[in-house]
Write a structure and sequence with these properties.
The protein is an alpha+beta fold. The protein has a domain of 94 residues: ApbE-like superfamily (T-fold, Orthogonal Bundle). Helices cover 32% and strands 28% of the residues. The relative contact order is 0.13.
Length: 333
């Protein structure tokens, strides 16, 4: 932990680790004791989450998946109910473009790995087709009180599309609980803000998928989640062809039309899932954003063209490329 005095406030920082991602926690406060306790509590919660929600390592989520795939009912704790129910609700509002149940096809493609790029062959079309014939969706999970079950043995929760969102939400809640009003929690570029730093808002750069430089800069308002999903860092490369790590739940094939999507929302789980859904949606990204209640969104397509909603346009500054508005927007985006 480092702290430096400026006026009466301290800038207190710490790096933590969860879900394979370095998380930077920065707090701007006069109460160093409260900040230290908040950091200790966040660290404890992150350690628990890493064991609880990792889709590919032994832990609670693996137990849930095994029981569901065996056709058994699973008793859930209140927190488990919240996380799984929220992920399924987000899948429904995205019209299935975000789908937390397709862990089986992600595993088949090898995209559960932490080592990229992958150089193994892609699965055959026949194997993909067999899985797709038993495709899973949010309607395959049945709720009865605090229990869930499924009659589809191919369900496999993979919360990679909301895990970082849940982590930053939890961290912000802990910070608020300790009476701190100004903070930013940044999980590998996906973040949530609280208040501001001194008299100035938090400055956020949106990264270009072409050269990783700042595509644009915006000032973050109080209590906003800003998340980006992209297919330009994690991929499979085989025989001269590149396969993005984000899978379209409607085809079980890697996406290609949208290279990255950035969204602003009121909480991390929504922003996390929506960013993934917009990448998957391709040319229909604006309609999916509207359906998920996202008013501020920016996407970059495979031809390096930038598109942004009207509300996002108003937030951007220092743009290195021009972002257009899509021509078929509805709902006032």
């Amino acid at each position: 932990m480092t702290a430096c005095q400026q006026d009466k406030n301290l800038t207190i920082k710490r790096q933590l680790f969860v879900f394979g991602t370095v998380v930077d926690v920065v707090m701007w406060t006069v109460d160093e004791t409260a900040a230290q306790q908040a950091l200790a509590d966040i660290s404890t919660q992150f350690n628990q989450m890493h064991m609880q929600w990792h889709a590919w390592k032994p832990g609670r989520l693996q137990e849930i998946n095994q029981q569901l795939r065996q056709g058994r009912s699973v008793d859930l704790s209140p927190e488990e109910q919240h996380v799984l129910k929220t992920s399924l609700d987000l899948s429904a509002s995205s019209k299935g473009h975000f789908n937390p149940l397709i862990g089986e096809i992600i595993n088949l493609w090898g995209f559960h790995s932490d080592e990229y790029p992958l150089t193994t062959p892609p699965p055959t079309e026949e194997v993909i087709a067999r899985l797709f014939n038993n495709a899973v969706g949010f309607e395959d999970i049945h709720w009865q009180g605090h229990q869930i079950s499924s009659s589809n043995p191919h369900v496999w929760f993979d919360l990679g599309g909301v895990a970082k969102g849940h982590a930053v939400d939890l961290a912000i809640d802990i910070i608020k609980h300790h009476g701190i009003h100004h903070a930013i929690v940044n999980a590998g570029g996906d973040l949530r803000t609280l208040g501001q730093k001194g008299e100035k808002p938090w400055q956020i750069a949106i990264q270009s998928p072409k050269d990783w430089q700042a595509l644009a800069v915006l000032e973050a308002n109080n209590n906003e989640a800003i998340f980006t999903s992209g297919n330009y860092r994690r991929y499979k490369a085989f025989n001269g062809k590149r396969y993005a790590h984000i899978i379209d739940p409607h085809t079980y094939q890697p996406v290609s039309q949208i290279v990255s999507a950035t969204v602003i929302a009121h909480d991390g789980m929504l922003a996390d899932a929506a960013a993934t859904a917009l990448v998957v949606a391709g040319k229909d990204w604006a309609k999916i954003a509207n359906g998920m209640g996202i008013k501020e969104a920016l996407v970059v397509d495979e031809h390096d063209r930038c598109f942004a909603t009207q509300a996002m346009h108003k937030r951007l500054s220092q743009q290195t490329i021009t972002c257009e508005r899509p021509k078929d927007l509805t709902g006032g985006l």
